[in-house]
Amino acid sequence: MSVAVVRSLRGRLLLAVLALAAVVLLALDTVVFVSLRADLLDRADTSLRGVQTQVVQQIRNGRPPARGLAADARMLGVSEYFIEIRRPGGEVTPLAPGLRDPGAAPPRVPRTSADAAGTPVTVPAEDGEGPGYRLLTRALPDRRGTLVTAVPLSSVDGTLHRLLLVEGAATAGALVLLAVSGLWLLRRGLRPLESMARDADAIAAGRGGLRVAPADEDSEVGRLGLALNTMLDGQESTQARLRQFVADASHELRTPVTAILGYADLHAQGALGDPAHLGRAMNGITDEALRMRRLVDDLLLLARLDTVRAPERVPVDLAKVAQASAGAARAADPRYPVALETGGPAVVEGDGEQLRRVVDNLLGNVRAHTPEGTRARVAVAVADGWARLSVVDEGPGIPAESLPRVFDRFYRADRARGGHGSGLGLAIVAAVVDAHGGRVDVAAGAGGGTRVSVRLPVTGSG
């Protein structure tokens, strides 16, 4: 398996599955091996105890201990035995020598009978090369010596060896089968991801309008596709708005630049020789330059709000902000009466200058888009943990079809309201309010005109 395959998701998943399966199979093989070995040893121990019981019973009955022992021992399920009596004086008496293999080395008997008395133990052959033995010793009645009984473990070892071969072959076959089937299943299961990757490469190569597939709620891959498509839709929408924003900004800047260039061209042609004409041209240049500066300032403010979403957080009394803005609006143009209604302090956390810009823009819209003499009312109140600011005018109002778009940048509904502006005033209001964790809405006033409502969380409301 190449390094690239191992590093791939398919390779890592396959290796993980194979490793887990190998651990499980090896554990199962171990359990089977240990269980079978214990069972075989238990059978050998049972035959040893049976032989010893038979010998002791014959001794107690005064019969020769070896009489009929060979036949009885074979009936216990084992064909070979090593049986002998070790006398206290050191004499060794073999019993039923026909049950043992003459060419096999005898077992290594423990030096003291206490080492194996009553409990079967596994011992090696005397020469250390032959098969091991299962050995059991027992003291004979009347201190006649120690009965030593052992059975060779050659059959047990052979059975366990064959089991190991079978388990090894079965485990290897199972892992190979699992690897083949797992690779096929992983390829089939990851095929949607490969298709999604190809679609993403095509989108990255500039083929706009494409979407990844599958994209559904039926699987994890499908939900990933839905999330990616949602992200792509958002990116395309953002790019479209950015292109429109740049186009609108260019258009708005081109108008004052064109006017300034026109005045400069008139001056170059000598058409402004009259001091009165020259004065009007200079005033026009100043007006257009100021208009261009306001537009650039608005664009910079919007860019700053888009980049830094969290404004400076200090306690600000929205009622005092509204009072200062209403006074400035009256001074700026007394022809537009402004009434102020406050119900006491309305302290919020935020940037005082930006919040002042909100009220100034709303009152500036009244002057820019309503006839002379239009009255406006600014109200500030606190309710349910929110500071509520509303600006209501008695102008001609905004067409219902334009209400959903009034907060879009550079959007103007001038045909209904008249006046001039960059179309950024309400966009700035919406951006500032959003940065302060609030909400702004616009609707038709109860008696006509327009009502703009701003809600901001008061200090301590979260």
TrEMBL record:
<dbReference type="Pfam" id="PF02518">
    <property type="entry name" value="HATPase_c"/>
</dbReference>
<dbReference type="InterPro" id="IPR003594">
    <property type="entry name" value="HATPase_dom"/>
</dbReference>
<dbReference type="GO" id="GO:0005886">
    <property type="term" value="C:plasma membrane"/>
</dbReference>
<dbReference type="InterPro" id="IPR050428">
    <property type="entry name" value="TCS_sensor_his_kinase"/>
</dbReference>
<feature type="domain" description="HAMP">
    <location>
        <begin position="187"/>
        <end position="240"/>
    </location>
</feature>
<dbReference type="Pfam" id="PF00512">
    <property type="entry name" value="HisKA"/>
</dbReference>
<keyword id="KW-0902">Two-component regulatory system</keyword>
<dbReference type="GO" id="GO:0000155">
    <property type="term" value="F:phosphorelay sensor kinase activity"/>
</dbReference>
<keyword id="KW-0418">Kinase</keyword>
<keyword id="KW-1133">Transmembrane helix</keyword>
<dbReference type="InterPro" id="IPR004358">
    <property type="entry name" value="Sig_transdc_His_kin-like_C"/>
</dbReference>
<keyword id="KW-0472">Membrane</keyword>
<feature type="domain" description="Histidine kinase">
    <location>
        <begin position="248"/>
        <end position="460"/>
    </location>
</feature>
<keyword id="KW-0808">Transferase</keyword>
<keyword id="KW-0597">Phosphoprotein</keyword>
<dbReference type="Pfam" id="PF00672">
    <property type="entry name" value="HAMP"/>
</dbReference>
<dbReference type="InterPro" id="IPR036890">
    <property type="entry name" value="HATPase_C_sf"/>
</dbReference>
<dbReference type="InterPro" id="IPR003660">
    <property type="entry name" value="HAMP_dom"/>
</dbReference>
<dbReference type="InterPro" id="IPR036097">
    <property type="entry name" value="HisK_dim/P_sf"/>
</dbReference>
<protein>
    <recommendedName>
        <fullName>histidine kinase</fullName>
        <ecNumber>2.7.13.3</ecNumber>
    </recommendedName>
</protein>
<keyword id="KW-0812">Transmembrane</keyword>
<dbReference type="InterPro" id="IPR005467">
    <property type="entry name" value="His_kinase_dom"/>
</dbReference>
<dbReference type="InterPro" id="IPR003661">
    <property type="entry name" value="HisK_dim/P_dom"/>
</dbReference>
<feature type="region of interest" description="Disordered">
    <location>
        <begin position="94"/>
        <end position="132"/>
    </location>
</feature>
